[in-house]
# Entry
Amino acid sequence: MNHKNNHNIIKLILILVLFGAFNIWGQDSTASGDTAKPKMFDWFAYPFAFYTPEVNLAFGAGGITYFRTSHRKGTRPSKVTLSAYYSINHQYLVYLYPVVFFNRNMDEASAEIYFENKIDKLYGIGSDAPDIENPAFQYTDFSIIVKFKREFIKDFFATVAYEYINYKIPDPKDNPYLNTDAVYGAQGGNISGLGYGLTYDNRDNVFFPSRGNLLEFYALHFGSFLGSDYKFSNFFFDLRSYNAITKDDNIIAVQGYAAITTGEPPFYALPKLGGQHMMRGYFEGRYRDKQYLMLQVEYRKFLFWKFGGVLFIGMGDVAGKFSDFGLKNIKYSYGAGLRYILDEDEKINLRVDIGFGKDTMGFYFGVEDAF
# Structure
């Protein structure tokens, strides 16, 4: 990776992010100083712009709307998160993520929706996938995963889920794996599957927990009976713990994550290492394979006024099967971030993170913390 280009990109993004962060629009439905009643509705929005060699110059906006479905004390805040951008070379992304709590927090419904036309990178499959000269390719994607959770014992939830992905590769460019069909799924296609799961959630806050745990398992099964072009299964384990060291302004957050795939998935449905939530510093998909294990720890500290800071470190790797995991190829990531408190009562933050991996780095910006 060209570090000179990285430094120029980061300088531009920092300027634009800081400009946007202090020009945030918001509307508050609760009178100033009225904290006796839960906030029923509020929202924040922000503009952003960025440049990367793959996307070119892009402009966009993001935001979050959060609300409660009941005046009852203890009702968790629901949310709708939206982010979208468009670049001067006609790449775009629209991301929508609603999560709604109702029926006295016993029910939770969510949907994660992507609509995008972007440049991605494929370096091959496996933990030792080498750098190649032409990893880029163009793809279009519409994907949605819908989940419904029902509490059956205090803090325990049963989950049903459905996922659909329509993935196309209009231009493989000069990627050697896609031009020679060296990876399964090089022609794109549809993925459709049903799933189930189990969740334990006793966090004290859904946006910024200082105490409690979120322990989640869910599985998805894809096959022709649902119109899928590929037959495979995904199993996910997402284990998170939050602990305040002294007060709520000194928090240790820990996440362990495992993704296990069986059957014959296309390359774009394989677990991917990297991105803005896990193994920050690595390009999401720089390494991909059927199995993915990750552990990260983050220290969160209130600094002053509306600012906080974080330090994080992570380790993880991908493999074709569990027996292939070992210390030799394990990847490490580390970094730091700045937080700006958008809503002190609900504990919603605007975050800016910079992460580092082996000979790589990444810059991340958005609403809410990484995990």
User: Anything to note?
Assistant: The chain has a mean pLDDT of 90. The chain has one domain: 3-27+37-367. Residues 3-27+37-367 form a domain with the Porin fold (CATH 2.40.160.50).
